[in-house]
Protein backbone atom coordinates (compact mmCIF):
# COMPACT_ATOMS: atom_id res chain seq x y z
CA UNK A 1 0.00 0.00 0.00
CA UNK A 2 2.79 2.45 0.85
CA UNK A 3 4.50 1.58 -2.43
CA UNK A 4 1.49 2.78 -4.42
CA UNK A 5 1.22 5.93 -2.36
CA UNK A 6 4.92 6.64 -2.81
CA UNK A 7 4.64 6.16 -6.58
CA UNK A 8 1.59 8.45 -6.77
CA UNK A 9 3.29 11.13 -4.69
CA UNK A 10 6.41 11.15 -6.88
CA UNK A 11 4.25 11.30 -10.01
CA UNK A 12 2.50 14.40 -8.65
CA UNK A 13 5.85 16.02 -7.79
CA UNK A 14 7.09 15.37 -11.33
CA UNK A 15 3.94 16.97 -12.73
CA UNK A 16 4.44 20.01 -10.51
CA UNK A 17 7.96 20.45 -11.90
CA UNK A 18 6.57 20.49 -15.43
CA UNK A 19 3.80 22.90 -14.49
CA UNK A 20 6.29 25.40 -13.10
CA UNK A 21 8.26 25.46 -16.34
CA UNK A 22 5.07 26.43 -18.26
CA UNK A 23 6.42 26.92 -21.79
CA UNK A 24 7.30 24.13 -24.20
CA UNK A 25 10.75 25.56 -24.94
CA UNK A 26 11.57 25.72 -21.23
CA UNK A 27 10.29 22.18 -20.65
CA UNK A 28 12.38 20.91 -23.57
CA UNK A 29 15.53 22.71 -22.42
CA UNK A 30 15.25 21.54 -18.80
CA UNK A 31 14.51 17.93 -19.74
CA UNK A 32 17.49 17.88 -22.11
CA UNK A 33 19.63 19.29 -19.29
CA UNK A 34 18.50 16.37 -17.11
CA UNK A 35 19.63 13.81 -19.70
CA UNK A 36 16.45 13.01 -21.61
CA UNK A 37 16.83 12.26 -25.33
CA UNK A 38 15.80 14.84 -27.93
CA UNK A 39 12.82 12.76 -29.05
CA UNK A 40 11.51 12.13 -25.52
CA UNK A 41 12.03 15.76 -24.45
CA UNK A 42 10.24 17.02 -27.56
CA UNK A 43 7.33 14.64 -26.93
CA UNK A 44 6.90 15.84 -23.35
CA UNK A 45 7.33 19.51 -24.33
CA UNK A 46 4.72 19.18 -27.10
CA UNK A 47 2.18 18.25 -24.43
CA UNK A 48 3.37 20.82 -21.91
CA UNK A 49 -0.09 22.24 -21.33
CA UNK A 50 -1.36 18.80 -20.36
CA UNK A 51 1.30 18.19 -17.72
CA UNK A 52 -0.92 15.87 -15.67
CA UNK A 53 -1.20 13.42 -18.59
CA UNK A 54 2.33 13.59 -19.86
CA UNK A 55 4.39 10.53 -20.66
CA UNK A 56 5.14 8.92 -17.32
CA UNK A 57 8.06 6.90 -18.66
CA UNK A 58 9.97 9.91 -20.03
CA UNK A 59 9.32 11.97 -16.92
CA UNK A 60 10.38 9.10 -14.67
CA UNK A 61 13.73 9.05 -16.46
CA UNK A 62 14.21 12.79 -16.06
CA UNK A 63 13.10 12.82 -12.42
CA UNK A 64 14.22 9.48 -11.10
CA UNK A 65 13.88 8.25 -7.54
CA UNK A 66 17.54 9.17 -7.09
CA UNK A 67 16.69 12.80 -7.96
CA UNK A 68 14.17 12.94 -5.11
CA UNK A 69 16.60 11.16 -2.78
CA UNK A 70 19.14 13.90 -3.47
CA UNK A 71 16.50 16.49 -2.57
CA UNK A 72 15.99 14.72 0.74
CA UNK A 73 12.46 13.41 0.12
CA UNK A 74 12.02 10.28 2.26
CA UNK A 75 10.66 7.11 0.69
CA UNK A 76 7.42 5.71 2.02
CA UNK A 77 8.23 2.21 0.85
CA UNK A 78 11.57 0.44 0.85
Structure explained in plain terms:
It is a single chain. The protein is mainly alpha-helical. The protein has helices spanning 2-21, 24-33, 38-46, 56-62, 65-71. The longest helix is centred in the first third of the chain and has 20 residues, at 2-21.
Percent of residues in helices:
55-70%
Tell me the radius of gyration.
12 Å
The separation of the N and C termini measures 12 Å
What sequence of helices (H) and strands (E) makes up the elements?
Answer: HHHHH
Overall average residue pLDDT: 79
Q: Note the total helix count.
A: 5
- Beta-strand content bin: under 5%
**Unreliable residue runs:** none
Write the layout of secondary structure elements.
Blueprint: H1 2-21, H2 24-33, H3 38-46, H4 56-62, H5 65-71
What are the key terms here?
78 residues; mainly alpha; elongated
